[in-house]
Amino acid sequence: MRKIMTGAFVSLDGIMQAPGGPEDPIGGFRYGGWAAPYFDEAMGESVGEMFANPFDLLLGRKTYDIFAAHWPYVAADDPIGPLFDRITKYVATRNPEFKTSWQNSQALGADVVGALKALKASDGPDLLTQGSTDFLQTLFRNDLVDELSISFFPVVLGRGKRLFGEGVFPGKLKLVSSRVSGTGVTVNKYVRDGDIVTGSFEFEQPTAAELDRRRNLT
User: Fold this and answer.
1) Which run of H or E residues covers position 118?
2) pLDDT (tens digit, 9 = 90+) per residue, 109-135?
3) How many domains does the chain have?
4) Are the C-beta atoms of residues 4 and 121 closer than 8 Å to each other?
5) Rounded CA separation 81/86 (Å)
6) Which of 7, 18, 81, 148 has its CA 20 to 30 A from that of 52?
7) Measured CA distances, 217 to 207, 209, 213 (Å)
8) What is the reported pTM?
9) CATH number of the structural domain spanning residue 78
10) What's the CA gap between 2 and 199, in Å, rounded?
11) Can you give the residue ranges of the Bacterial bifunctional deaminase-reductase C-terminal domain (predicted)?
């Protein structure tokens, strides 16, 4: 059984659009590259750890296009480019005519959810997402993500594509590791932890004021 793992750089207000550069101005986004000034040695180590175990990439088409125009062209001694080149890249696209341009790449086809379920049930390395905000919403809505590595950056962006949109499948997560970089980025790893558990801080016997408040709600 293969796991789907999400890797994301996220602002404090939940935005993950174009962290590495201005290549995604969709929606009038003006802050492409907002994550770059926060990278230090600790951030480099956390990224290295994310790529340390065997994995295949799982990408939305826009992120695939960005990666395919960059990583095959880096120097041979780059720590990421040759790795991305040789692993399998699975691409989610709504375009039935889409042709992959990067070696070891394949489209997931028209039934993306069905293809993902089949991949999860197959043998092979885990599946790691990078970027792919729109595609992530499909994963979250269909409860397909097993593990999240989220780096929260100390910046508020105000608008842009968000990690979690409407219709996310509800569930509880368990924090299994956390570290803080020298630039104030918190790098957190979460795994699924069952259904949401609720509780209440209310008095066992509501006050008269509370009962009035409830009546006013209706």
Assistant:
1) helix 112-121
2) 999 999 999 999 999 999 999 999 999
3) 1
4) no
5) 9
6) 18
7) 16, 13, 6
8) 0.90
9) 3.40.430.10
10) 34
11) 3-186
